[in-house]
Amino acid sequence: MAKSDEIQTPDGLTPFSERFGAVFVKELRQGLRAKQFVFPFVAVQLIAVGSVAIELAVSNQAGDVIGADVFGGIFFFLLNIVFGFAMPMTLFGALQPELQSGRNVELLLMSNLTRWQIVRGKWIVGSVLAGLMLVSLIPYALTRYYLGGVGVVESILMIAVLGVGNAGSNGIVIGASGFRNIIVRVIIIGVCAISCSITTSICVLPVLGFSGSGGGPSVWEMTLGVILGAITSALFVVYGLQLGRAQLRLYENPLDPPSSGLIIALIIFTPIIVGVTMISTHALGPFSIVGGVVGTIGLICLALVIDRGPGKNSNIRYSQP
User: Fold this and answer.
1) For residue 286, is it within any domain?
2) Domain carrying residue 48
3) Left if phi > 0, otherwise alpha if psi is -120 to 50, otherwise beta: which for 273?
4) What pLDDT does residue 45 have?
5) Which of 81, 169, 199, 275 minimizes the number of CB atoms within 10 Å of its CB?
6) For residues 294 and 277, is the Cβ–Cβ distance under 8 A?
7) Is residue 6 assigned to a domain?
8) What DSSP letter does each residue of 191-253 carry, written as one string?
């Protein structure tokens, strides 16, 4: 007997539960079958196999350290291109089907979906598809560990960095996809990428030099850096989704103007705001990163309040869902 929130298909297969959300289920089904997922997935596997094979050959000839340093760096450089650029850019037109002549957004909002659910569902699907690829890389990380010269914890942390970067990039591209002009989308993506890179560097780089050792950052420094990077990435995910929400409005009202301009202004000034909060806690020494964390979390809360929309018990007259 199927559960009440599930639909039994004629062939006996049980589909996704309705609690996942209609947008998520629709986008995930389309994404798993689309060539924008299949081709990058195959490319990632080929890159991983080729990198491990070359690293094994070089390690046997020139030593473990040389193979791990050179081809390990190439391996993660190529993966950064795939997860940080290629996969997010498949979402370049994510919101256009809802905004083109058919105006599917009106039908979606009339079906009790909110703007948050639409953009959030698209972002979750993009991140889940990237997560599937990242999970498939774990065997290669273990293989490189057994080859010697590469720690399994460091490899897992590098995979986590790829996931964090991909999540932030997905949010930025989805936000830009709501603008009809392609040049405007490219400019917004570029501005967001620069702002995100500077903000992340402000928060993360001081952590990597805590120990002062000449052998590179330790495992706990790398772990803390990943956590700080995740907080910064969450900020730009919120920025991106809010930009997307602003384009999914049903109508324009002078009493409830779109929030696009304010979000873009916040994106531009975010490095300055986070940098000032870091400087204000400079007296704490190594713990000055607390200021950057507080500033970043404060901006997340501010971005979430902008264009919040009516709640279940709200009587706001002009707010849109």
Assistant:
1) yes
2) 19-305
3) alpha
4) 86
5) 81
6) yes
7) no
8) HHHHHHHHHHHHHHTTGGGSS--TT---HHHHHHHHHHHHHHHHHHHHHHHHHHHHHT-SS-B
